[in-house]
Amino acid sequence: KQEVTQIPAALSVPEGENLVLNCSFTDSAIYNLQWFRQDPGKGLTSLLLIQSSQREQTSGRLNASLDKSSGRSTLYIAASQPGDSATYLCAVHSGGGADGLTFGKGTHLIIQP
Amino acid sequence: DAGVIQSPRHEVTEMGQEVTLRCKPISGHDYLFWYRQTMMRGLELLIYFNNNVPIDDSGMPEDRFSAKMPNASFSTLKIQPSEPRDSAVYFCASSSLRGSNEKLFFGSGTQLSVL
Q1: What is d(CA B57, CA B98) in angstroms, rounded to the nearest whole number?
Q2: Contact A11/B at CB under 8 A
């Protein structure tokens, strides 16, 4: 059974810093990996999707990397802003079926102005 | 498109009462998912549909939970009778799973409190 772990559970950094969020998964036979953002009282918004054949994806100040063999992914946020404050969740799609999506519990990020 | 629409946003009920949560997926999406989120267990998949047909309901915790999708634009999740441990945020999500670049689109959720 796939297990997804996110470390740290919470992170607080000053505005302007670059930061890295970590995600690890136990079964490397994945289809793809997604990073989501969740704001308080809201649903999840997909930020980046990395297919199993890819190493990284970039969108603006966000860069996500994938190392399937070691079961790790990182989300890099450059020049952090207070508006980046949210919970970031990693989700792994472990098979061809739609039921293969396993979520981590997320990293709660606070960017101090 | 307005995105995935869920109602109600908040529901407070007493133990033993029936609760019905509603979801309208994004038009054209042929997959619909119901998730439950708690602090302890994170996000858990309850059930998902493909073309209105339930495909996997192994995540439904008990027979008290049931879900239907009578047409492509509407789904319900019903809890009868409700219990305090059902208190959670329930999310509906939809997807158009064509190719390996699919993304899930989530609704804003229903915050359920069972007293």
Answers
A1: 22
A2: no
Give the mean pLDDT of B32-38. 94
Whether the ω angle into residue B70 lies within 30 degrees of 0, i.e. cis, is: no
Sequence-separated (6 or more) residues with CB below 8 Å from residue B98: none
pLDDT at B101: 62
Which of B60, B102, B110, B112 has the most A C-beta neighbours within 10 Å, making it the best mutation to test the interface with A?
B102
Interface test with B, best of A6, A46, A53 (most B CBs within 10 A): A46
Q: Kindly give the pairing relationship between strand B10-13 and strand B110-114.
A: parallel
CB-closest option in A34, A42, A89 to B103: A34
Please tell me the predicted confidence (pLDDT) of residue A31.
86
Inter-chain CB proximity A101 and B108 less than 8 Å = no
Nearest C-alpha neighbor of A30 from the set A103, A100, A99, A106: A100
Residues A51, B101: C-beta atoms closer than 8 Å: yes
Positive or negative, the Cα torsion across B5, B54, B90, B10? positive
Three-state DSSP at A84 gives helix
Task: Count Cβ atoms within 10 A of the Cβ of residue B16 and give its class: 0-12 exposed, 13-18 middle, 19 or more buried.
Answer: exposed
Q: What is the mean pLDDT of residues B11-16?
A: 96
Q: How far is CA B7 from the centre of its chain?
A: 10
What tens digit of pLDDT does each residue of B41-69 get? 899 999 999 999 998 888 898 899 999 99
